[in-house]
Amino acid sequence: MALKITEECINCDVCEPECPNEAISQGDEIYVIDPDKCTECVGHYDEPQCQQVCPVDCIIPDPDHRETKEQLLEKYKRLMAAKAKA
């Protein structure tokens, strides 16, 4: 499933550059994760990099975007194919 950033976010700026899919961006008040781009780093790393660097542990699975590892891998493949065409 995609991840999401909770209200506990302190806008420390460490998660955004860690995302290999560029799914994290600054929202109105806190950082946000685009569920269409988030693969939980499947295809890139063994663990979600944003969760690894977050100092307040405010990045959690998004219950509104449940996906299996296989679905995340398919999303990764689509994102890489689209990036290759750009």
Automatic annotation (TrEMBL):
What InterPro entries does this protein's entry cite? 4Fe4S_Fe-S-bd (IPR017896), 4Fe4S_Fe_S_CS (IPR017900), PSI_iron-sulfur_center (IPR050157), YfhL-like (IPR047927)
* UniProt key word Transferase: no
An MF annotation (GO) of this entry: metal ion binding
Q: Name one GO cellular component term.
A: cytoplasm
Q: What keywords appear on the UniProt entry?
A: 4Fe-4S, Electron transport, Iron, Iron-sulfur, Metal-binding, Repeat, Transport
List residues of the 4Fe-4S ferredoxin-type domain.
1-29, 31-64
Q: What is this protein's name?
A: 4Fe-4S dicluster domain
Q: Which organism is it from?
A: Tepidiphilus thermophilus
